[in-house]
Every structure is written in C-alpha cells, then in structure tokens.
Write a structure and sequence with these properties.
- By secondary structure, the protein is of the alpha+beta class.
- The chain contains 13 helices and 29 strands.
- The strands form 5 sheets. The protein has a 6-stranded antiparallel beta barrel with strand order 16-17-20-21-19-18. The chain has a 3-stranded antiparallel β-sheet with strand order 1-2-3, with no helix packed on it.
- Strand 20 and strand 21 form a beta hairpin.
- Helix 1 runs parallel beside helix 3.
- It starts with a strand and ends in a 10-residue tail after the last helix.
Length: 720
C-alpha cells in the first residue's frame, strides 16, 4: 500500500514511507470517520470535512485494511464511551457482586478458548481448501473456470483474515474487561471505606450531640435564668422580625438566640403605691414570685377560676388507650426520597403517625378553653388581651413531646367535640380542601365567646429538619363587648430527622390585634440555641394600647406557663453593645395567667397524649358518618394493629384518589361540552371574604347540630 496508516486511540495518522520518521500528512478521528470503497482497490476515508483516498495493491489487501479500520473505529468509539462514563457515580457492591464479576470473567475466558479452537480449525481447513484450489489452478480448465477458482481462493483468504480478526477482538475485549474490573473494584472499595467512615462520623456526632445537651441541661448556670428570679432580661425586639425556624434555606437548622439583644429590661417595683401612677400594661419577664390574677384586675371571677377544674364532667371519659407497640423502622430509608417534597403528598406508613387526625389536633387548641371563659368576663380589654395571648401560647403545650404526625384527613372528613353540658361549648372541624390540605374550624361557647379559623398546613422536609407552617388567621370574638381578636400561628420545626432523638421547637412571632379597640400584643417565640443562656422554649411579649403605649409584659415558656406583669414606670436605659438603646420597665409582681396540666400517668407509652387528647378518639354515639372517630385505619392503629392499619390506610387513600380522578374527568367532560361544572363544595362550611384580613376563608354556614338532633346524615358522602 502506498500510504501507511497508524491508528492511535481515536485518531488515524497518514504517512508515506519517506515520511515515517517525520510529521504526519493528516489526522482523522476514527470515532466519527466514514469508511467507504470506490472499486476493487480504492478506500475513501472522510471525517469533519476532510477526505483521504487510499489505494491498495490488490483486492485482498484492500479488504484487510478495511477490516482493520472498522475494528479500530469500533475500538475508538468504545474508548470514547468509557471515558465519558468514568465521571459517573458507581453504586456500592457487595462481596456477592465481586464473585459474580469474577465468575463472568471466567466464563468469558472459557468462551474465548472455544473461539481460539474454532479459529485453529478454520485456519487448518482453510489452508487445505486453498491448497486444493491451487491444485485446481494448475489443471487445464477453461479460462472462465480459472477466473472463478481464483475468486473463490480470494474469498477463502478473506474468510481466514476475518476469523483471525474476530479472535483478536475477543481477546482484546477480555483484557479490557479484566482491566476495568480491577479499576471498578478499587473504586468500589474506596467508596465502601468512605461510607463506613461517614457512618462512624455521624454516629460520633450524634453521641457528642446528646452528651452536649445533657451537659448543658445539668449546668449550674441554667438555674440562674428561670422566670421566677427577681430580675430578668426579656428579649423582645422593638419590632419583631419575621425570622422563623421554617426558613427555606437548607443550611439553616439552628438559630442563635443571642443575636437578638433584649430591647428592654424589667425591674420589680417595691412601692405598691406606684400602681396608682401607672396608666400602662405590658407582658414579659418580671421580678418577684407570681401570684394568681385576682379581683383587682376587673375580672368578675375568683382567682381559681382559670384552673378549669371547678366543673366535673357529667360523663366519665376514658383516661387511657392501648400502649404504643414497639415497632422498629428505618426512618431515613423512607425519608431520603422525600427531600424537598410537600409532606402531605408523601405516602407514609402509620409507624410515623399518632392515632389522631389533623382535625382532632386542631380541636386540641381548646384544651385550656377556661382562659377564654375568664377573658369573656373581663371588663378591661387590656387584661382580656393578656388572657387571649396566654390562650394562644397554651395551644403549643401539647406539642413538646408530640413528634408523631397526625393522620391527613380525607376530603369531607369532619370532627365534632360536643362539650356543651360539661364546659358550655361545641366545636366542629371539616376538611374543606385536600391539595393544599385545609381545615375549617368553628367553636361557639355559651360562656360568651366564639372562635373560628381556617388552617392550611404547608410543610417541607429539608433533610436535617422538618418545617410545619400553619397558614391562615384565627378569629376570636367576645359576645358582650364585641372585641374581635385575630392572630396567626408560628412555625413548628422537628429536628434530628436522621440521627439522634427527635425534638420539636416553636419559633417566630405572633401579632394579636383587637380590631375593635386597635390594641395589640406582640409575642416572640425564641428559637432554641445551644449558645443561649436563656430559658428554653421562652416566650416574651408586649401588650400595647391603641396609642402604642406598653401596658403589660408577658413572659414564660410555651410548654409550661405564662405570667403577666403590669408596668408602673418606664425609662430609657443605656445603649447595648449593638448600639440599641434599651427601655427599662418597672413592673408589679407577676401574676400567673396559665399553667400546663400534668400529663396522665404512663403518657410516654400513650403517644404523650394529654387528658383531653385521650378522649378525642373515644367512640361516641350520634356523630356524623364522616367523623374522624369512625376512620378505620386510625382506629386500628389506636388498637395496636399497625399492619392492618397500613393496609386500610392505603385502601382509603386509593379510594380518595379514585374519587378525585372521577371528579376531574367530569370537569373535563363539562368543559368540552361547554357546560358549567361545579367543583367540590364542603358540606358545613362555605367560602366568603374575611372583612378583617381581606382573605378568602371558609366559615360555618350552620346545619350540623340540627342534623345531629334529627340523626339525618343522608347528605354526607361515604368517604370511609
């Protein structure tokens, strides 16, 4: 051949015999090259706009070069693919995978031996065939027969060359597989070591986390900063900032409470006569021992009224449920595929639940309803605001140990709590939307107040923590005075989702507004921090009149108690290290607004339910057929039959999905036919515009308690 071809990896270099020791005449990328034959001896190579014409001396030589070029092109393509695959992540393999790879290589080697044997036989018989053909050429045969014999001889030669090339390719493949296998084994071994090291590191960090927390809780400095100490610094900013534990930044898990410097300091007044000079009230940490709110505070009830224990229920309700089974479950194996997703759209086994629905958890806000009973009898609206603020904080007291997830209600599911004879109120909840999940709640009390709310739960799992953000306003109105209070809930954050003990924190701000008098209360839930010397779960607040004058300070913790102290004098203090000037408030001794009830005996084995929570799922006659008490998966879980509960939960969710698909199909058909389609509408609530906030909100439209009196539930859907 006139041109020498040297292929190196993916390129082909062309040189003449005189240029073998010098530079190349040209280079072609074999991976993208096109190989063609013009006639018996010519070869055409083209790639990237370049074309080279090569000529062989015989047809057999041309075919040998075409075969070699095709094999080199295939090898170049494989090498290019291998290089692009080198950056891909490899999955860890076990010892069985290693054995399987070695077994595959042995099988390939055996097949290669078989191919070599066949090649030797082909070569042997091919040589014999060529000798026979050569002998035929020496015989006297017609000219045409001689040409055919010559052609057959060339074809036999090509066949032998091709078979040799096939054997060489197989040998190259086996060598490549062996080399790649060794490389893969090294990579996998490295990944295995890295994974083991990471697991050991996480375990060590979890141990350090627990030991640090124990050391912090046992530190002597902890006892110095309790709410009962005579003088305390209270951390409430002049205007609360909207920094919540549900921040969408994935790197934000813990918050440094020391960053927010206290905007004021409270000091207990020693002269009781100063009370007569005070025209303002405020809530926060103040000195002195707390006393009960008494007759002097213009609430026409005794100081023991807020205990809520003066009325004994007429019906004996249950005080225990079946103990929680001890089932082990790998949380991370389920949650790792859920990062960044909406929690309500993640299918979860009941192992992560507690045997209550979200509607029942919403009803638990009424655990300390007696605070509202007392507030309804208050003549002073600022004192009434203090009790309302304590009520808003009390709803979080049941969450301190409750890290389990309540059941997501089905669309149209309801829950009633009729305590009219016992405590004078009736409560009704209904799931009015499924995506996004939204529940409407309405409570009316014969003791002078009404409460309603629509709560939409937005939640995100961020790998390190779970943020639960209740959206929607809570309305409270007192019948006698017409005072109308509105506030919103703070963010709940569940920490240690992957390792360590689960714990929950509440953080953010609550702004309570009395829309009739324009009085306000600003509550701050301080996020937990390892570096803060403040009391854990601390809540502080300020009650201000319509002119913005501070009247009371509130202080306490959301899991234990809240106190109020009336301001008798205020003055400007020195500037802090951050350059902010602090206000110093002189207050009277604090008065106890609310204190948490102790948990029932053995509560740790009953999902840490409070006395009210233990009764919420108790069977009751006459309730609607859509009531949460009748939900079968929840009932099975409460009885400890979790496997059956999981199967029933899947059935109910699939039934709900089928109903939604049917409703969507009907809507699509109506649109195609140009007809009006009325979407899903709740049964007991209707949507209207909130006059206070301007938002669309579902409010109670009536009819439920009348239907219960008639025991007519024919209008209710069959959702279970």
């Amino acid at each position: 051949m006139l041109i020498y071809l040297i292929h190196s990896q993916a390129n082909l270099h062309l040189r003449t015999q005189a240029e073998m020791a010098h530079t190349c005449r040209g280079t072609i990328n074999l991976a993208t090259a096109h190989i063609d034959t013009e006639d018996a001896c010519n070869i055409v190579l083209s790639s990237g706009g370049r074309t080279y014409h090569l000529k062989a001396s015989t047809e057999v030589e041309r075919q040998r070069w075409v075969t070699a070029l095709e094999l080199a092109k295939a090898k170049a393509i494989r090498m290019m693919n291998d290089q692009s695959d080198d950056s891909a992540d490899e999955e860890p393999t076990s010892q069985s995978d290693h054995s399987e790879i070695q077994g595959t290589l042995k099988t390939l080697a055996s097949k290669l031996d078989d191919l070599s044997t066949c090649n030797e036989l082909i070569a042997k018989h091919g040589a014999a065939l060529q000798r026979s053909l050569s002998e035929l050429e020496t015989l006297r045969v017609p000219l045409e027969g001689g040409e055919k014999i010559k052609a057959v001889n060339e074809r036999a030669t090509l066949f032998r060359i091709t078979s040799n090339a096939m054997i060489n390719a197989c040998r190259d493949f086996l060598e490549l597989a062996e080399s790649h296998s060794r490389r893969w084994q090294r990579v996998l071994q490295h990944e295995r070591e890295q994974r083991t090291h990471l697991e050991e590191t996480i375990e060590q960090l979890a141990k350090q986390h627990n030991s640090l927390e124990r050391a912090w809780r046992e530190a002597p400095a902890h006892a110095v900063n309790t709410p009962d100490t005579p003088t305390t610094d209270t951390g409430v900013s002049e205007r609360p900032r909207k920094e919540e534990a549900s921040d969408e930044d994935e790197d934000t898990e813990y918050f440094d409470a020391m960053e927010d410097s206290p905007a004021f300091i409270t000091v207990t007044a020693t002269d009781p006569s100063q009370h007569r000079r005070s025209q303002s009230n405020l809530s926060g940490a103040s000195g002195g021992q707390p006393s009960d709110w008494n007759q002097d505070d213009n609430c026409s009830v005794s100081s023991n009224d807020f205990s809520g224990k003066e009325l004994q229920p007429r019906r004996k309700r249950r005080s225990r449920i079946s103990e929680k089974p001890n089932y082990s479950l790998n949380l991370w194996s389920i949650m790792k595929n859920c990062i960044g997703k909406e929690l309500s759209k993640i299918p979860m086994p009941v192992n992560f639940n507690e045997p209550l629905s979200m509607l029942q958890r919403l009803t638990e806000d009424l655990e300390y309803h007696e605070l509202l009973d007392k507030a309804a009898r208050c003549e002073n609206s600022l004192e009434q605001m203090c009790l309302v603020a304590a009520f808003s904080v009390s709803s979080y007291s049941t969450t301190v140990h409750r890290t389990a997830k309540p059941f997501n209600p089905l669309l149209g599911e309801t829950y009633e709590l009729d305590r009219l004879e016992e405590f004078g109120y009736r409560s009704l909840c209904e799931q009015v939307s499924h995506h996004p999940p939204a529940a409407a709640h309405h409570v009316v009390s014969q003791r002078g107040w009404s409460l309603w709310q629509e709560i939409t739960i937005a939640s995100k799992f961020r790998g390190k923590y779970l943020s639960i953000m209740p959206l929607g306003a809570i309305h409270l109105q007192f019948h006698a005075s017409g005072n109308h209070y509105v506030w919103r809930k703070v963010t709940s954050t569940v920490h240690n989702i992957i390792v360590g003990k689960l714990w929950i924190d509440q953080s953010g701000d609550i702004d309570i507004v009395n829309h009739r008098t324009k009085e306000t209360c600003q509550l701050k839930f301080s996020p937990y921090s390892y570096f803060s010397r403040e009391v854990p779960r601390k809540v502080t607040g300020v009650v201000m009149d319509s002119d913005g004058q501070a009247n009371y300070i509130l202080s306490g913790t959301w899991d234990e108690k809240m106190e109020s102290a009336k301001i008798v004098q205020s003055s400007r203090g020195s500037s802090s290290s951050e350059g902010k000037q602090k206000t110093v408030y002189q207050t009277l001794s604090p008065k106890l607004l609310w204190k948490k009830y102790p948990l029932p005996e053995n509560a740790e084995n009953m999902y840490y339910f409070s006395s009210l929570a233990l009764t919420l799922n108790e069977e009751e006659d006459g309730v609607s057929i859509t009531d949460s008490r009748l939900r079968p998966d929840q009932r099975l879980m409460e009885a400890g039959r979790w496997d059956e509960a999981n199967a029933e939960k899947q059935r109910l969710e699939e039934k709900q999905r089928a109903v939604r698909r049917r409703r969507e199909a009907e809507a699509s058909r109506a649109i195609d036919e140009g007809e009006d389609f009325e979407g899903y509408k709740p049964l007991w609530f209707h949507q209207t515009t909130d006059e206070m906030t301007g938002e669309n909100i579902f409010v109670y439209k009536g009819g439920y308690w009348e239907a219960k009196d008639r025991q007519d539930w024919s209008m209710c859907p069959e959702i279970f």
